[in-house]
Structure formats: structure tokens, C-alpha cells
Amino acid sequence: MTLLSIEQPKSQRVSTQIATRAVFFIAGIAMSAWAPLVPYARDRVGVNDASLGTLLLFLGMGSLIAMPLTGALVSRQGCQRVIAFSVFATLCALPLLAILPTPASLALGLMLFGAAIGLVDVAMNIQAVEVEKAASKAMMSGFHGFFSLGGIAGAGLVSAVLWLGGSPLQAVAGVMLLILLIFAFCFQHLLSDRIAKGNDPLFVIPRGWVLFLGILSFILFLTEGAILDWSALFLTESRSLSASQAGLGYAVFSVAMTIGRLTGDKVVNALGRTRVLAGGSLLAASGLLLAVGVDSVAATLTGFLLVGFGASNAVPILFNAAGNQQTMPVNQAISAMTTVGYAGILAGPALVGFVSHAFGLSVAFCALAIMVMFVAASARSVTR
Fold this sequence. Notes:
Blueprint: H1 10-33, H2 38-45, H3 49-77, H4 79-99, H5 103-135, H6 140-163, H7 168-186, H8 208-238, H9 248-271, H10 273-293, H11 297-311, H12 314-324, H13 330-359, H14 361-377, H15 379-382
Helix pairs in contact: 1-4, 1-5, 1-6, 1-7, 3-4, 3-5, 3-13, 4-5, 4-7, 5-13, 6-7, 6-9, 8-9, 8-11, 8-12, 8-13, 8-14, 9-10, 9-11, 10-11, 10-14, 12-13, 13-14
């Protein structure tokens, strides 16, 4: 399969679109499969929660090392080969996470896993940009929606096997089999040509407009990471919700984001990217302010729901903008922007924690709302 164009047969373009959704689904499965294994890994290697937090940094470190390199690899090898290699690396890393017995070995396993996930994340978004261009309509939100669906499927499958009495390795084996079956179907329909000609540098620093898009994606990923890491604590400390129910905050956020992305392409095609980015960012900011401004569990959960709906299509729109800018080649731009954005998820717990320690968690969420409003104010420039 070569690079698509609008003149190519519709059946060929549709097959590639389906294959792209499948890769996003695979990435979601692989990433979420790790979450239910965390308690087992902690007990197996014999560390406390603080040491576990340090170990988890190696996953992010692996991703941040691999992501800036992916654009050049795609340029030289094409999306198909890079995605195939990253899926293979993921399949090699997953069983290690279920069996490695020492903190040092688990750290290396997590770094390999993070690097594999980072590779596939950038490569699939480069492919998605090309597929969307060939379709001449918004498709990016739907692709990211399949990542969210994969996350639900991966975590659900692993949790189900563990609940039925299976071992972590048996749970991982089920995930690996599912990934293999899906990838066997989609491999031949991935883009095999180079995205850019010539030998690109292995490492590129975002510049100009791409750097600006990276900053906006950093803000949005930072917000997502804050909901992931701090919503439960906010509900227990500020809304007196029991610890057993505190996960509802991230649950409603995740459901809203998944629904928003799966329906987002129709919304973007109907309203345009400028309105969706501006309106969605304002909705997310309003949700954060509602969550902290009204002393009610129902209002706080509603606020997190609005954040999910509002933010759901913002990042896909930024990827579309990175694919259409002229400052840097597409492969380099997607690679650089993804790296900066992903740093937001990694930095989120520390930055929000620092502000929360000094001024309170409500102030930290309000600061996030102001930053998201900046994304809304930039909408017209982003989609020009």
C-alpha cells in the first residue's frame, strides 16, 4: 500500500482507513493492559508506592526517547514498517511486565514498553494525517476514539482474566493474541511509502508554528493528566466522597471523551474545526470551573463530564493542523508535537501537585481552566 490520494479507488482508501482505526485500537489495548497489572508488579518486585512511582517514570522515559526519533524512521521506512516493528516490540515487552522479578529488570521492561508505545503513537498519527488528507474530510477524532475504545477493551480483558483467577502472564497472553489477530488483518493496508523524501535528521526540535501547536497540546495533555491523577483526590478531600467511589470522576471523563471522539468527525464536518476547537476548549474550561466552583458531588462529576466532551476533539484538531502546516515536514512535525504534548501527561502530576501544595487543588484546577481558555483563544489561528 502506497501513499493515498483522492484519485485512488475508494475501496483502497476505505481499507486503509479501517486499518488505521485498527492500529489506534491496538495501541489503546496495549497501553491500557498495563494498568491492571500494576499492583501485581509492585508486589512481585517488592517495592512500596513511592518506589513504584519512580519505576513508572521509566515508561515515560522510554516514550520520550522514542517519539522524537519516529518521524525520521517513518521518513526512511514508511508507516507500515515502523508500526509493524513497534507492535512487535510491544508484544515482546508485554509478557516481561508480567514476569520480571526485580525493580531493575522491571525498569528496563517498562522503558522498552514505553519506547514501543511511543513509536506506534507517532507513526499511527502520521498515517492518520495522510489518510485524512486523502479523504478530504475530518477523520482524526474517530481514529482517536478507537484508541479510547481499545483502552476499554485492553483493561477490561486483563481485568476479566485476573478476576477469573488467571495469572498476569495468562492475562497478557490473551491481550497478545488479540493484538496479533487484529494486526494480521490490518498490516497489508498500512502505508508503506516514505512520508518525506531524503534522509531526515534522527532528532528534531520543534520550531515556529509546530512549537506553538506543541504548547497547546501540552496544555490539553496536562489537563487530561490532571483529571487522571487528581480527580479522585479532589472528590475525596473537597467533596467528601468515599475512596471506593472516587474513581467516578475519571470514569465519567473517559466515557465523555470516548463518545465525543467517536462522534467528533461528524461534528467537525458540520461546524468546522475553528468552532469545535474554540467551543470545546471553552466547554472544558467551564467544566473545570464548575467542578471546583460548586460544592456538590453532582456538579463536580458534571464538570468532569464537560471536560471530557470539550477536550475530546481538541487534540485531533491539533494533529490535523500539524499535518497541514508548512514550517516542518509532516513526519517531523507530528513527532515533535507528540513529544511536547506527551510531556504534559508526565509533568502533570508534579505541576498540579506543586500548585496544589502551595495554594490548594481548587486553585490548580482554576489555573488549568485559564490555560485551556488560551487554547480556545488560539482556535482561529490554529485552523487558518
